[in-house]
Protein 1
Amino acid sequence: RAYGEYLAGDCVACHRLSGEPAGIPIIHGQPVSDLITALLEYKLGVRTNEVMSVRTARLGDQEIAALAAHFAAQTK
């Protein structure tokens, strides 16, 4: 989780506990499996969002797992 916290700087610029800005989902406290699925789907182009596609393109499996563990452990 510490590595995920280190990597999370880019994520929390948009994904905030408050749910603002509107339309950007809250990822804190979500199940690890849901977070991994979402990140992989953005990386593989299954889900489309220009920002998320750019951010996930450079992530490897270890980084995805670390980010998912970090955000899953956060309270909503």
Protein 2
Amino acid sequence: IVGDDLDDLVGRDGDVLEALQELTRLAVTRETGGRSRLMLDVAGFRDKARAELVALADEVAERVKTAGEPEKLEPMNAFERKIVHDRIGEVGLRSESEGEEPRRRIVVYPAE
């Protein structure tokens, strides 16, 4: 969704966007009978978040490579964790999720 003054559709930290996405997924599932992997974005919020998460993953990867010690990240939602896991794998390290929602977090490990 693009346009001017869409902050209300994003909400604080994307909470309204998450709710809109879930409602949209439910509507698609109801109409099609199949589960949807639909991703809704408003005003480029998810693109900006993706870039920030890739930068975070790069910073953490550098620290883990330098120190040789695992590092735990702050809790993230599934969308955020997927981006970080993908980037950590791209730079040659290993990552795992631990904990239960909503406190599920990523641990980044040095290469073996």
Protein 3
Amino acid sequence: MFRTLRIRLVALNAAVLLLVLSVLCSWLYAHMRYRLFRETDEMLRMAESRMHAHHNQERPRPDHAEPEPDDRTIYLFWDAEGRLAGMQPDQAVPADAAGRLRNPADERAIRTVKIDGTLYRMLQFPASPGQNSPVGAATIGVLRSLEDVENTLRLLRVDIAAGIAGSVAVSVGAGLFLAGRALIPIRRSWEKQQQFVADASHELRTPAAIVQAQTEMLLRSPAHTIEQESPHIAVILKESKQMSKLLDDLLTLARSDSNQLQIQPSAFALDALLRELAAQFELLADAKGIAVSADIQEPLSLWGDEGRIRQLLIILLDNALKYTPPSGRIEIAGRYQSQFVYVSVTDNGSGIAKEDLPHVFERFYRGDKVRSRAEGGTGLGLSIARWIVDAHGGTIRMDSKVDQGTKVEVLFPRKKRTSV
């Protein structure tokens, strides 16, 4: 798929470049042709001016100044009957062809004529008495060869064609390279999306299979009482809650990816929230023999979405409680730190392997005990936590060592952020 997309991008880029170059080069060619023809026409007009200046016994005006005539300028003279009366230089063009060049309408327009395959620009005008022309000449034609003009235009066409071909070749090569580079993040996003869908399907398949199996077990004994089947019902309830939580987490991440989730910031007492959650988790920790301590600066306020900050802290505390063994400890800290609000959750639990640590915020990433379904997690908690921190303009980092514990640190901007 990406190979086809890459080829299409390169082809589109080359086509656009070819179109732009064609338009520009066509304009350049037309402009150059116009300038060359105009220069030739000016020489024809200056030749006419010399003829009139000779008749009036005066020098041509400065704006009609011209170098001495050369052999590329040809004069044709016709009589009143339209017959060729002479030419200068002699035999410059075939007489029969020259005789046919006169325009019977005596129009004074400059036109292009062709003689024996050679193009000329021609100006025709009526002769005046006393001009340097054969006796009886009524009409004069001035011709100038376009051979040099045609040679110049031919070379220009070759240069333009070579330039366009070279530019398109370079464009294709550069396009292949740049398209490949541009598609790298798209390919990575696509692979992550595919992996995300596969992982989500896998996570949902397991509880769905368990619910189906337990339901079939219930149907095998329709005469049993609820008390007799309570173990199966408990499993169904547990797995249903697991699926519900997973679906909620997936919905949260999907909405965050599409920017549908809005942060509703306000100033709130972070110290009160931390103490409330510390007290709640202390009750849960007592059942496992885990000590919970809190070192919280008072007062401690934060500008943010209190609901999302609560969700973030619950995720961090739940992970700490989940992976801390009995007789362990969990420490909660909160204080001002320079221009930031600092919050940390530290435990002395099982920790995370060094090779797994860079990936713990990725969705559904699995290490030894990181995001293990056996611990009751969905594998999305830390991804949601990172989104909450990013949405508040903060940073989150994790430091952990196997069998020594984990420390999660979060920094939030202390001042109000208008972009939240």
Protein 4
Amino acid sequence: SRVGLDARTFGACLDGGKHADLVRQDTDKGNSLGVRSTPTVFVNNAMLAGLADYSVYKRLIEQALQQKP
């Protein structure tokens, strides 16, 4: 409520389960890929678990762009 969130609406949305199947599918996919924490980011086949420095993301993205056919 301190940030202006309508707690009743949020609670109803959360408890309604409207997107529960989608969340479950995403969770299952992440588990199958070895994701054990958030954030986890994939750049090509490289998995970065937890927080990484900007330079790490930059290097991996630049490497991926060099491999692009």
